[in-house]
Design brief:
- The protein has eleven helices and nine strands.
- By secondary structure, it is of the alpha/beta class.
- It folds into two domains: 108 residues, Rhodanese-like domain (Oxidized Rhodanese, domain 1); 106 residues, Rhodanese-like domain (Oxidized Rhodanese, domain 1, 3-Layer(aba) Sandwich).
- Helix 10 links the parallel strand 8 and strand 9.
- The longest helix has 31 residues.
Length: 266
């Protein structure tokens, strides 16, 4: 009888040990699983490696590679990842298969074909960075990678892009739904701003979500609450990140001075 109980006890212990081991393994797998910031498309048979969003942020902060926006100059002017460069298009190529000029990239890196280069474009379904990476490799460049998740994922995870003066002029002229936000102090805004701009003073922005001036702007209509894809341009102060936290997807920040913007908008 004791032997029978001993066998049953041992079996129960083995089951318990196995369950604990399985749970521990599951926890280890969960802990090892990458976050969304640490993932790539992981496409098979690619000629150049991808970088993650986390890696790209580190690359930009440390300036450990030259980051190129592989889209057209106008797309770049309208919105680009802060710190990225852009070059002109390859001559004689139709817009449907747009590709940047490898010779221009060569000049940007002073002819150093071992220079670390990272490319990006309009995301998973965009072929611009792939085409450019393949041409660079064929031209002898040895350290080319891609952020193939591109601008759409950067916007979703990081929040903001930069816009150039040409881009601001284009948006104001072509997109009547666009919202311009003046992040300077209220007194500065009252003294004069860009035509049609709305005030969102950075001095009233508080940490967190749905608080401070951002919440007020959502409630009083300064922020487009019924269409979060509306183009939003923030200027005057760097308050763009606070707006990005409220899930506005098409957001750009003008990094230049207000005086430069006002002079060039006339």
């Amino acid at each position: 009888m004791m032997a029978k109980h001993s066998v049953q006890l041992n079996a129960a212990v083995l089951v318990l040990v196995a369950a604990v081991s399985l749970a521990a393994t599951g926890q280890a797998v969960a802990q090892a699983a990458p976050s969304i910031y640490q993932t790539t498309l992981m496409e098979p048979n690619q000629k150049t490696q991808e970088v993650t969003t986390e890696e790209l942020r580190k690359i930009l902060a440390e300036k450990s590679a030259v980051v190129f926006d592989a889209r057209s100059p106008l797309e770049y002017a309208i919105s680009h990842i802060p710190g990225a460069l852009n070059v002109s298009e390859k001559p004689g190529v139709p817009i449907s298969v747009y590709i940047s000029d490898v010779a221009e990239i060569g000049r940007a890196v002073s002819g150093n074909k071992a220079a670390p280069i990272v490319l990006y474009c309009n995301g998973p379904f965009c072929g611009k960075s792939k085409r450019l990476s393949e041409e660079l490799v064929a031209a002898g460049y040895t350290n080319v990678r891609r952020y193939q998740l591109g601008i759409p994922v950067w916007r979703a995870l990081v929040g903001i892009t930069e816009i150039e003066l040409e881009g601001v002029r284009y948006v104001v002229e072509k997109d009547r739904t666009a919202v311009l936000l003046d992040a300077r102090d209220p007194e500065e805004f009252k003294a004069g701003s860009i035509a049609g701009a709305r005030d969102l003073p950075l001095s009233g922005v508080k940490p967190g979500k749905d608080v401070g001036e951002v919440k007020k702007a959502k409630d009083d209509g300064r922020l487009p609450m019924e269409d979060h894809n509306t183009r939003i341009i923030v200027f005057g102060r760097d308050g763009a990140l606070a707006v990005a936290r409220e899930a506005f997807h098409n957001l750009s920040y003008f990094p230049g001075t207000f005086d430069a913007l006002k002079t060039n908008m006339k």
